[in-house]
Design brief:
The protein is of the alpha/beta class. It folds into two domains: about 10-255, no CATH class; about 260-345. The chain contains ten helices and twelve strands. The strands form five sheets. A four-stranded mixed sheet has the order 2-5-7-8, with no helix packed on it. A two-stranded parallel ribbon has the order 1-4. A two-stranded parallel sheet has the order 3-6.
């Protein structure tokens, strides 16, 4: 029943999905890349738990943090969105950033690591679930899912670090690497926001709003120009944020790390990237198991069913998505090996 008018609203952040017949009681906030299944009659806020599952069991809303990190659906979504953007005009009115791991999602994952650690320390062993902002989290998952987020953060930090080192050409020295890993100013080191698809530092939005209020931005054309300027600085601002994260984890700015520390970061990146890759491949196998074949060749034997399934869906070892994951794993191993050898020679 409305009292002062329709006040209830909810937010499902980027990448969110709902299952068939799902129901959410607004107000609610669902974190990025979270899948919601079932009917939920309580108000909850899971913004700090991206890449999760929310289900309903026995009338309770349950949050399974990080469990959507290593699913086929999440990975495929991150790949198909850029390919579906078929806008031809170079002057695109909507500024969209399709990156899966970025300061916005990584910042939420860093929050989740902290929150899950605090909940784990306070939880009693007799508890089945712990409650957080209106939703229940299975106690036994607190430590495991925290490690999943840590894995993803190591992948993100390594991706950003490796990309900058790989971009160097010619005879590379440690000084060259430090130069590539230098930050530029402080913009981006704080909180990030998703502005209808555009990712930016919150400080830049606040600055832009201040300019608008002061009359410095007086037309739509000027506003678009300012937003484009911010978007063009994304890589610089994002590295400022990522560099801060690396320093908080390792105690040293990437641009000041010695060869040994850089080699350790690359080894960690390789290990965690391959681990995530393997987990996604494991999830892919479910698409080709006996359960998935139930609707095929239903009037014939098991062999005919398998042949019918493969004629329609193909086989696991020839699947384009699976082959792409295998190629990615090889590329990660090759890049890590090459960079490790390069850095070891600099010691």
């Amino acid at each position: 029943m409305y009292k002062l008018g329709p006040l209830h609203q909810g937010i499902m952040e980027r990448g969110g999905k709902t299952g068939s017949l799902s129901y959410l009681l607004w107000p609610c906030r669902v974190g990025p890349f979270t899948a919601v299944v079932g009917k939920h009659y309580t108000n909850f806020d899971t913004a700090d738990f991206p890449f999760s599952y929310i289900t309903e069991e026995g009338g309770k809303s349950l949050l399974y943090p990080a469990m959507n990190l290593f699913t086929v659906g999440t990975r495929r979504d991150s790949e198909k969105w850029p390919t579906r953007d078929r806008r031809k005009d170079p002057d695109k009115k909507d500024i969209l950033n399709f990156t899966l791991f970025n300061p916005f999602t990584a910042g939420r994952m860093a929050n989740a690591v902290r929150i899950l650690g605090e909940l784990s320390e306070k939880a009693l062993k007799t508890q089945e679930n712990v409650s957080y902002q209106g939703i229940n989290i299975p106690r036994l998952l607190l430590k495991t899912t925290r490690k999943y987020y840590e894995m993803a953060l190591k992948v993100y930090m390594g991706d950003e670090l490796v990309r900058r080192i790989v971009s160097l050409q010619g005879g590379i020295t440690l000084k060259d690497i430090h130069g590539a890993l230098n930050t530029s100013g402080d913009t981006g080191k704080g909180n990030w926001i998703d502005v209808v698809g555009m990712l930016m530092p919150e400080s830049e939005m606040e600055r832009l709003i201040g300019e608008i209020k002061a009359g410095g931005v007086s037309s739509i054309a000027e506003l678009r120009h300012r937003l484009s300027d911010i978007h063009e600085q994304y890589d610089i601002y994002a590295w400022n944020w990522c560099s801060t994260l690396i320093k908080s984890e390792k105690g040293t700015e990437p641009s000041e790390m010695d060869a040994s520390m850089l080699a350790d970061l690359i080894r960690e990146w390789q290990e965690q990237s391959l681990r995530l890759n393997n987990m996604i491949r494991k999830d892919t196998e479910k698409e080709f198991d006996q359960t998935s074949m139930i609707g095929y060749g239903s009037l014939s034997g098991e062999n005919t069913r398998k042949l019918d399934f493969e004629a329609v869906r193909g086989s696991y070892d020839r699947n384009k998505f699976v082959l792409g994951l295998q190629e990615e794993a090889s590329r990660i191993a090759e890049t890590a090996g090459r960079l490790t050898q390069l850095i070891n020679n600099l010691r």
